[in-house]
Design goal:
With 218 residues, this protein is an all-alpha fold. The chain has one domain. The chain is 78% helix and 0% strand. α1 packs antiparallel against α3, α4 runs antiparallel to α5 and α7 packs antiparallel against α8. The C terminus is likely disordered.
């Protein structure tokens, strides 16, 4: 396995371990299921590696990962927005994403890559992030955002969601060029390393927030 890819997997593991150690802080930031998500991602990656080597896997688990990641992030972002108009737009984006994934699943099944969903889903998340930022400005919140764990959640995923569709589309055009495709894989590994490093940094330097249920009704 390439050293850069190995570092990416190690970063995922360390992030999941860090999330477990900082579970109380994560729970108080209304992100308690983030711990479960991070462990899911790491275990999913290991299973994918094993099944690919055994020749038993195409895109099923990769597609499932995209579905879970995009819609989990959209739901969490929706729960963080307070202004009614922005909140309504955010939940609309969530259901739009679900619809896109469902349509592509019906059309392609699970054995082909969901290119449309993996491209549009992240872009929808970026739009949702902009709604959250607008919510913060309109709410006149004075708390230092870099002391809030959700800021690092947002920054990490924003990096991933901006980069991944571009890299994915580029790989579809250069799939027959081994050196270019490999270079794009390494670039994706760097993005992953940065994303999980941002999450881990957030666990360490963010402050505790008032405790409340992550999925309470607003």
């Amino acid at each position: 396995m390439n050293t850069l890819l190995l570092i990416a997997y190690l970063t995922e593991l360390l992030c999941a371990v860090g999330a477990t150690l900082y579970y109380k802080k994560i729970k108080e930031a209304n992100l308690k299921f983030f711990v479960v998500y991070l462990w899911y991602v790491f275990i999913n990656e290991m299973v994918i590696i094993y099944l690919k080597q055994a020749g038993l896997l195409n895109f099923q688990l990769v597609n499932l990962y995209s579905f879970i990641t995009v819609n989990y992030v959209l739901w969490i972002t929706y729960k963080k927005i307070d202004i009614d108009k922005l909140k309504s737009t955010s939940i609309t984006l969530f259901f739009l994403s679900l619809l896109i994934f469902i349509i592509e699943f019906i059309y392609k099944g699970s054995y082909e890559v969901w290119l449309v969903s993996k491209t549009l889903g992240p872009l929808i998340c970026v739009i949702s992030f902009s709604l959250y930022i607008s919510n913060q400005f309109q709410s006149n919140i004075t708390t230092n955002p870099f002391r809030q764990l959700f800021t690092y959640f947002l920054l990490g995923f924003a990096l991933f969601f901006v980069a991944s569709p571009v890299i994915l589309v580029a790989r579809t055009f250069y799939v027959s060029e081994d050196s270019t495709s490999l270079g794009l894989s390494y670039l994706m590994a760097i993005v992953v390393i940065l994303m999980y490093s941002i999450f881990s940094l957030g666990f360490i330097i963010s402050t505790k927030e008032a405790s409340s249920s992550e999925f309470e009704n607003k």
